[in-house]
């Protein structure tokens, strides 16, 4: 079983919904780990091994961001966000100044995670509506699918 297939099946158990229902897209879930629907990330949480690249795909017609909560990522981790910002405030201001960091319909954003722990993130324009997620990086061998 490949890693993305494993994550899809794990996401189904974790959130009760698989990626197959996440979209206003073609329904192809083989090329991403997290879908971005109109107002949420699906699945909300993914668990991966260190060194794993997670791919987000905008499966809706709304522009989104993938923006780490600066105070909710492991201390040893570098800050990350779509748009390659170096801080949460820069990412938020970039969005407000002209949709910088936007991931548009059918586009992807990817990040390789090396640091163990929980990396919480959100979508700048849809955070108030609950568009938040987490990548949990663990050394547990069960995530090495």
Mean pLDDT: 83
SS strand fraction: 15-25%
CATH class: Mainly Beta
Total beta-strand segments: 8
Q: What would CATH call the homologous superfamily?
A: Cupredoxins -  blue copper proteins
- Rg, alpha carbons: 14 Å
CATH architecture: Sandwich
Number of helical stretches of at least 4 residues: 2
Order of helices and strands: HEEEEEHEEE
Class of secondary structure makeup: alpha/beta
Overall outline? globular
Give the CA-CA distance, first to last residue. 6 Å
- Order of strands, widest sheet: 2-1-4-6
Can you characterise this structure?
The model is unreliable at 1-28 (pLDDT under 50). The chain is of the alpha/beta class. Helix content is 15%, strand content 25%. The protein has two helices and eight strands. It has one domain: Immunoglobulin-like, CATH 2.60.40.420. Strand 1 (34-36) and strand 2 form a beta hairpin. The chain has helices spanning 3-15, 88-96, and strands spanning 34-36, 41-42, 45-48, 52-58, 67-68, 108-113, 117-122, 132-137. The radius of gyration is 14 Å and the shape is globular.
